[in-house]
Design a protein that fits this description.
1% helix, eight-stranded antiparallel beta sheet, 1 helix
Length: 291
Amino acid sequence: MIALSLFVLLIALSLLSPVSYGNGTLLSQVLTAEVSHLRFPMPLQAVDSQGLTQPVQVGAWGDETSIGNMGVQVEIQTNAYNVSSQGTDAFWVGDVLSDGTFVQFGYIIASAGYYCLNGHVTDAQTSCLGVEGNIGFADARWFWSYFPNAHDVSDWYYGFGSANSAGYNGTWHLYSIQPSASGDWSFVMDGAPVYSSDVPVKTSTSPAHLVAEKASGTYLSQLGPVEFRGLAYLGNNLWHATSSLTLIDGCGFADTNLCTVSAAYGVELAGPNDVIAGSGVPLPESGQLVW
């Protein structure tokens, strides 16, 4: 359950939203999904005591002074592994913006298969906007995603990097969402832009935050664990490290009051502004100050 009820909107978002075909069949109702003959990640097959199917997220909010930021960043240590069948795990930094847009950037591991690597999902239809290709086993790739309207999880854009673009196990990488020279959002990894959007830069209405997400697959299956450090936000053209971290634990596009995360995933402090999130990690009390 999310104690920070003001920010439940973010937790209602996930990298992978439910997609349906023209006959109304949800991807969550089938074992294999194809969109334009491309395999597409399924929504989470995790069912809580109320029979809900939803993504699961654990992570941390930055301090309140990061609200109104003009960019966010965090270092993430890559942990690549084989995910469960039809599974997708994601580790990211994100922001909810004053115009209602939601943006996120980090790395993703999907079950092996053939995918559209750059697409637009809207009104239950997926359009492939770029390359298609195979994602291999334990193939960690950077990804970006944005929702033009954070209230509408059926309309979003995404892109995946090339094979192993998030580096190999144990390597650290800096993921930044920041303004480009043209005034739009740019997704920058280790100082190099990987994608420049046409989404105008706006200040945030949420604190900077980091998340480990079981976006699809099996609820109790492995999620990381992954280490995040140095959560920071852009203000007055300078990067500022957050001064505190508060627990995020919840589920996506469902009533978070009906969600139980504690049985599977957690968040623990590894050092100042440094946390480990995912499997085998204890879960503090909801809303607890982690650091």
